[in-house]
Specification:
By secondary structure, the chain is α/β, with parallel strands linked by helices. It contains three helices and four strands, in the order βαβαβαβ. The longest helix has 17 residues. 20% of the residues are buried.
């Protein structure tokens, strides 16, 4: 007898239905490749869902995994979202290339440690 597959919830964004369809296909390919069952996809038309809204939806759908595209605005809050989901035993997966943060020229400062200083332990 086969055990039930873990459930995933996807997140797509944008008002353009053609773009959303492509994103849906990307999420679906990942979910199928990982052997997950897709419970639903949150279509965030304005790319304005909050981390709390995503966590609530994932919990209501019984998700074990939330699949997030790296190009979404919500990807900027990935660390916070992953932390909030983790509190409920839900894993967050970020699909796609993660854009590098941009720093205006001349604003980057060195963050070197002073000699003999040890990093703080958790």
């Amino acid at each position: 007898m086969n055990a039930p597959r873990p459930v995933a919830v996807g997140h797509v964004y944008g008002a353009d239905d053609l773009v959303a369809k492509r994103q849906y296909a990307e999420v679906t390919r990942y979910v199928e490749a990982e052997g997950l069952a897709l419970a639903g996809v949150l279509h965030d038309r304005r790319d304005r869902l909050t981390t709390s809204q995503v966590v609530d939806a994932a919990r209501q759908l019984g998700a074990a995994v939330v699949v997030l595209l790296s190009r979404s605005r919500l990807a900027g809050a990935y660390t916070r979202l992953a932390s909030e989901l983790e509190q409920h035993g839900i894993r967050c997966v970020l699909l796609g290339a993660v854009p590098r943060p941009t720093v205006p020229r001349g604003r980057l400062r060195s963050c070197s440690r002073t000699a003999g200083a040890e990093p703080a332990s958790s």
